[in-house]
Specification:
It is a single chain. The chain is 83% helix and 0% strand. The termini are far apart. It is mainly α. The chain has a single domain, classed as Up-down Bundle (Growth Hormone, Chain: A).
Length: 451
């Protein structure tokens, strides 16, 4: 009898502990992160490879097709014009149709276009291919950010977005040496290596699109890996947060598109993306220029270093931002360091590979640190279709910086004969972004209802 009496309270205590809100939250968040984040992470790695590989292709492509630095800047940047035009409609369709179907469509179409771009015969055909790639991929990144808000509360969002966005540096860590090896070693069937680079790196998107259709649940209600209790917890908590936003002043879809806070965030993102995409598309050529006769494979290894450094930094900043529920300083202070690093790159005449890679590592860390805290800001006051439209607006207008930055780098370098002035201009853009973040104020209930 004593044995029975001893065991009964232990069972009761275990059941009670497992059913507490804290235990349900910990278990649910752990399950969702384990099931959702790896899949969207892999998909974003594929996206980054397909978007960025033109920077490595340029190491041999520009000479073969007689592409000037200014023309290459346009090749790299025109992607964002197509992206800009179709991004908001794409994000609204994702919200209406469902993430599983729409994200699968995006992946398959951009994979096909990437493969076809490997057969371009002139710079004008590359212009068309890159524009269509932007059209195909439009809505993908803001769609994933929106999708994550269907699963995670605000207190988990910055770290979750940071974990998802680690795909960006990881894609470059994997893709840079892989791209360098392709450029040096693969010339199958008489096709140039840069063509194989685009073809081989486009195929995973097609496969990823098919896997997405079968593996990605659109909403928690479709998640077979969650219990009913866990699905209920997510639904209840997200509903509570949404009601709090409504109590502060509901923002309709139309209001989101003209809301001053949304446009303030757009300006921040534009200035940051000016620098980000300048780095992504031009870094291989910049390091090739100062590394002398290094092979493309070696250049690829050098390019990975800034991304390797930036990867843990962005995770730590995102975690710290969530722990303190503070966004502005976590985003602005790293950008100020990045701005200073770019200006040093632009004003210091040095042929030291070590010096350049060290400064580029600071730049990469600064830009990557922005993403977790930054993408938690719109969802503090937007919800539902207004969040879909607002996030898409910020990303599509902000990413026009992805057109202006790379094109400005090419145009300025062509006119001045070096990249120094262009790097200073890029540093100024990061400084502007940091200043705008510090000027940002959390909307009050009154301002939300008036906007």
């Amino acid at each position: 009898m004593s044995r029975t009496i001893t065991q009964a309270p232990q069972t009761a205590v275990t059941t009670t502990t497992a059913g507490t809100p804290a235990a349900i939250e910990a278990r649910t968040v752990r399950k969702v992160r384990a099931r959702i984040i790896p899949l969207v992470f892999i998909l974003f790695v594929i996206a980054v490879l397909d978007r960025n590989n033109i920077g490595f292709a340029a190491l041999t492509m520009n000479k073969e097709l007689a592409i000037s630095s200014e023309q290459f800047g346009f090749v790299a940047g025109i992607f964002f014009i197509g992206y800009f035009i179709f991004e908001i409609p794409s994000n609204l369709l994702l919200h209406r149709i469902g993430a599983r179907i729409w994200i699968a469509r995006i992946l398959i179409t951009w994979g096909i276009i990437t493969v076809l771009s490997g057969f371009a015969q002139s710079v004008h055909q590359l212009y068309a291919a890159r524009f269509l790639l932007g059209v195909a991929e439009a809505g993908y990144f803001p769609g994933i950010v929106l999708y994550l808000t269907y699963w995670f509360r605000q207190s988990h969002l910055a770290q979750t977005v940071a974990l998802f966005l680690t795909a960006n540096p990881v894609a470059n860590i994997i893709g840079a040496p892989f791209s360098g090896v392709i450029l040096d070693r693969i010339h199958w069937f008489g096709l140039s290596s840069w063509r194989w680079l685009l073809i081989l790196e486009g195929l995973p998107a097609i496969v990823g699109g098919a896997l997405t259709y079968f593996l990605l649940p659109s909403r928690p209600a479709e998640a077979s890996f969650l219990t009913d209790e866990e699905k209920g917890w997510i639904t209840t908590e997200l509903s509570r947060e949404e009601q709090a936003k409504v109590a502060s002043g509901r923002i309709t879809l139309g209001q989101a598109l003209i809301h001053r806070q949304v446009w303030h965030l757009t300006a921040i993102y534009f200035a940051a993306m000016f620098a980000n995409w300048s780095m992504v598309f031009w870094l291989p050529q910049l390091l090739k220029n100062i590394s002398g006769q290094f092979s493309n494979t070696t250049v690829g290894m050098l390019v990975t270093i800034p991304y390797l450094v930036g990867l843990p930094v962005m995770i730590l900043v995102g975690r710290s931002s969530d722990r303190r529920l503070e966004r502005r300083y976590h985003a602005a202070l790293p950008l100020a360091v990045g701005a200073a690093s770019l200006m040093l790159l632009g004003t210091t005449a040095s042929d030291s590979v070590l010096y350049s890679v060290a400064l580029w590592s600071l730049v990469a860390s600064a830009i990557f640190s922005l993403w977790g805290p930054f993408w938690s800001l719109p969802t503090e006051f937007l919800t539902g279709s207004s969040a879909a439209a607002g996030i898409a607006l910020i990303n599509c207008f902000g990413n026009i910086g992805g057109f202006v930055g790379p094109y400005a780098m090419g145009a300025i370098s062509k006119r001045t004969g070096s990249f120094h002035a262009a790097l200073v201009v890029t540093g100024i853009s990061l400084l502007i972004s940091a200043s705008l973040i510090l000027a940002l104020r959390k909307p009050s209930a009154g301002s939300l209802s008036r906007s």
